[in-house]
Design brief:
The complex is a heterodimer of chains A (about 450) and B (about 110). Chain A is mainly alpha-helical and about 450 residues long. Chain A has 16 helices and six strands. Classes of the chains: A mainly alpha (about 450), B alpha+beta (about 110). Chains A and B meet through helix 10 and helix 11 of A and strand 3 of B.
C-alpha cells in the first residue's frame, strides 16, 4: 500500500510457491475454502499482518500505558492507563464505523478526505453474493481488507493516546474522550488519506512524500496537537514550584521496551506483505532505536554527568519515531544516523527547548513525537535510496535528488497545519461546552480518584 | 528503663539486629523512616528537570532495655551500624516511665 514498487523477483517466486500452498485441498472437498475463492490471497502475508496488528496494539497497552504511567505521579497512574484502554475501545469502534472509510475510501472534497466506500465496514467484511452463489472476501493486495482495516486501526488507536502525554494529570476524562473521537475523525483521517489513502502525498501523486509507517500521519500530527493541548489547557498546578518526578521508572522502562518490540509491527508491518521491504523496515527500525539509546543517554552522560534510564528509554522512542517515515526507504546503516540525530534533537527539545518556552508538555509528547517525527520526515528525504525502494532513478538528497525535499517539507507543514487548526477548534469547542480541565481540587486529589473513583496503589 | 532509638542505614539493620539479639536483647521495633542530618539529600534529574531530594530513607530501630544494659546496647549499635561515612545515623536515648506487657499485665522490668 505504501511503497511496493520493489522486490518483483522475490514476490514472483513467493507468489508461485504460495499458490501451490493455497491450492492444497481442504480436508473436505465439498466446498472451496474462503482463501481459495479470494483473489490474490497470500497466507504468509496475512499471517504476518495479523501478527503485526497485534504487535501494534500492544504498543498502546501495555506499552504506552506503562511508559506514560510510570512518568506521572502515583495519584494519576490509573488516569493514564484508563486513557489508553478506553481509547482502545472507542477508537476501534470509530475506525470500523467511519474512520477507515474516511482515511482509505475514494476521494471526497477534492481528495481532502476519503469517501463512504468502507462506511460501516461495507466492502470490508465478507458478504454473500446471491447471484454468483458464493461468499465474497474483499481483498487489499494479498491480504483480506479486514486485516488491512484492523492493522490500520491500531495506528488510529495509539495516535490520540500519544497526545494524552501532553495534558496528562489535568484533563477531564470526558473531554479527552470527546476530543479523541473528533480529533481522529477530523484530523487523523484526512492526513492518513493524504499520505496513504491515495491523496495528495500518496505514491503516484506529484507531491508524493515518503512516509512509510506514519511519521507524518502519527507522530507529527500527534506531536504538534500535543503541544497545542499543553499550551491551551495550561500548566499543571504547582508546575515549577513543587517536585513532579516520575513515580515509577521501572514501569516506564518496561513500557518503552514493549514499544520498541511493538514498533517492529508498526514499521515492518507497513510493507503490508511479508517481503524484503518488511525485512528492511524491521532491521532499520531496530538500528534506529539502538542509536537513539546511545545518543540520548550519551548526551546526558556528557552534559549532565550521568546516563539515565529515562534518557535511554526516551532515546529509544526518539529513534523509533524518527525511523518510522523512513523505514521503507533508507538502509539500516542510514537508520543508525537517523537514530543518533533524533536522539540528540529530542534530548535538546525536552531539556532545553521546553525549559526555554516554559510550556508544560507533561510527558514530552511534542518533544519526542513532534520533533522526532519532523526530523524523521526531513531525513527521509535526505537518506532515501533506490537500493531499498527499487526505483530506477535517484530518490533521496544524498543520491542527488534534491527534489524530494519539497514534498517532504510540504507534507510536514500540511500535517502540522491541519493538526494545529483542527486541535485549536476542537479544544475551544470542548472548553466552551463540557470543559477541558478538571477542577483544582480534583487535580490536587489526582485523576485516579477524581475521575475514576479508584486508586492505583492500595497497600494493606 | 531506657528507650534507645537508633536511626541507621537499611543495609546495617540485620547486622545490628543480630548483634543485639546475640547479647540477649529479646525484642525490638523497626520502622521505615525518612529524614536528613548533615548528610543532606541528593539531586535527581528527569529529562532535564532537577529535583532535590531532602529526605533520605533510613531504618529506625527502637529497643527498650534496663538501665544497666543501656551502655552495652549503645556500644553494640555503634559498633555494628558504623561505616565511617557520613549518613550513618544517630542514636537517641530517653528515660522510660513505664512499660506494660499486654498479655499478662506485667509492668516495668518484668515486662521487658
Amino acid at each position: 500500500m505504501f511503497a511496493q514498487e520493489s522486490n518483483g523477483n522475490v514476490d514472483a517466486e513467493s507468489t508461485q510457491a504460495k499458490s501451490e500452498i493455497t491450492a492444497e485441498p481442504e480436508t473436505s472437498s465439498e466446498s472451496e475454502s474462503p482463501k481459495q475463492r479470494a483473489d490474490g490471497f497470500d497466507g504468509a502475508d496475512t499471517a504476518w499482518m495479523l501478527i503485526c496488528s497485534a504487535l501494534v496494539l500492544m504498543m498502546t497497552a501495555p506499552g504506552l500505558a506503562l511508559f506514560y504511567g510510570g512518568l506521572v505521579r502515583k495519584k494519576n497512574i490509573l488516569g493514564v492507563m484508563m486513557q489508553c484502554i478506553f481509547l482502545m475501545g472507542t477508537m476501534s469502534i470509530v475506525w470500523a464505523l467511519w474512520g477507515y472509510s474516511l482515511a482509505f475510501g475514494g476521494h471526497l472534497l477534492g481528495g481532502f478526505v476519503g469517501d463512504g466506500t468502507y462506511l460501516l465496514m461495507n466492502n470490508v467484511l465478507p458478504y454473500y453474493d446471491s447471484v454468483a452463489g458464493e461468499a465474497v472476501y474483499p481483498m487489499t493486495g494479498s491480504i483480506p481488507t479486514m486485516v488491512n482495516m484492523v492493522f490500520q486501526m491500531m495506528f488510529f488507536i495509539i495516535t490520540p493516546c500519544l497526545i494524552c502525554g501532553a495534558f496528562a494529570e489535568r484533563m477531564k476524562f470526558s473531554a479527552m474522550v470527546v476530543f479523541s473521537i473528533l480529533w481522529g475523525t477530523f484530523v487523523y483521517c484526512p492526513i492518513a488519506h493524504w499520505v496513504w489513502g491515495g491523496g495528495y502525498f500518496s505514491a503516484g501523486e506529484p507531491m508524493h512524500a515518503f512516509d512509510f509507517a506514519g511519521g507524518t500521519v502519527v507522530h507529527i500530527s500527534s506531536g504538534v496537537s500535543a503541544l497545542l493541548c499543553a499550551v491551551i489547557i495550561g500548566k499543571r498546578l504547582g508546575f515549577n514550584q513543587e517536585p513532579m518526578p516520575p513515580h515509577n521508572l521501572t514501569y516506564t522502562c518496561i513500557g518503552a521496551t514493549m514499544l520498541w518490540i511493538g514498533w517492529f509491527g508498526f514499521n515492518a508491518g507497513s510493507a503490508v506483505e511479508a517481503n524484503v521491504l518488511a525485512a528492511n523496515a524491521f532491521v532499520a527500525t531496530h538500528m534506529a532505536a539502538a542509536a537513539g539509546v546511545i545518543a540520548w543517554a550519551g548526551a546526558e552522560w556528557y552534559f549532565r554527568g550521568k546516563p539515565s534510564i529515562l534518557g535511554a528509554c526516551s532515546g529509544a522512542v526518539a529513534g523509533l519515531v524518527c525511523i518510522t517515515p523512513a523505514s521503507g526507504t533508507v538502509t539500516p546503516l542510514a537508520a543508525i544516523a537517523l537514530g543518533l540525530i533524533a536522539g540528540l534533537a529530542c534530548f535538546w527539545a525536552c531539556t532545553s527547548l521546553k525549559t526555554k518556552f516554559g510550556y508544560d508538555d507533561s510527558l514530552d509528547a511534542f518533544g519526542v513525537h513532534g520533533v522526532g517525527g519532523t526530523v524523521g520526515a526531513i531525513l527521509t528525504g535526505v537518506f532515501a535510496t533506490r537500493a531499498v525502494t527499487g526505483d530506477n532513478h535517484p530518490i533521496g538528497l544524498l543520491e542527488g535528488n534534491a527534489g524530494q525535499m519539497g514534498p517532504q517539507l510540504i507534507s510536514i507543514v500540511a500535517a502540522a497545519g491541519i493538526a494545529l487548526i483542527g486541535t485549536f477548534i476542537l479544544l475551544k469547542v470542548i472548553d466552551a461546552t463540557i470543559g477541558l480541565r478538571v477542577t483544582q481540587q480534583d487535580e490536587m486529589q489526582g485523576l485516579d480518584l477524581s475521575q475514576h473513583g479508584e486508586e492505583g496503589y492500595i497497600f494493606l | 528503663m531506657k528507650k534507645i532509638e537508633a536511626v541507621i542505614r537499611h543495609f546495617k539493620l540485620e547486622e545490628v539486629k543480630d548483634a543485639l539479639t546475640s547479647m540477649g536483647i529479646q525484642g525490638m521495633t523497626v520502622s521505615e523512616v525518612r529524614g536528613f542530618g548533615r548528610q543532606k539529600g541528593h539531586k535527581e534529574q528527569y529529562r532535564g528537570a532537577e529535583y532535590t531530594v531532602d529526605f533520605l530513607p533510613k531504618a529506625k530501630m527502637e529497643v527498650v532495655v534496663s538501665d544497666d544494659q543501656a551502655g552495652e546496647v549503645i556500644e553494640t549499635i555503634l559498633r555494628s551500624a558504623r561505616t565511617g561515612q557520613i549518613g550513618d545515623g544517630k542514636i537517641f536515648v530517653t528515660s522510660l516511665d513505664e512499660m506494660i506487657r499486654i498479655r499478662t499485665g506485667e509492668t516495668g522490668q518484668e515486662a521487658l
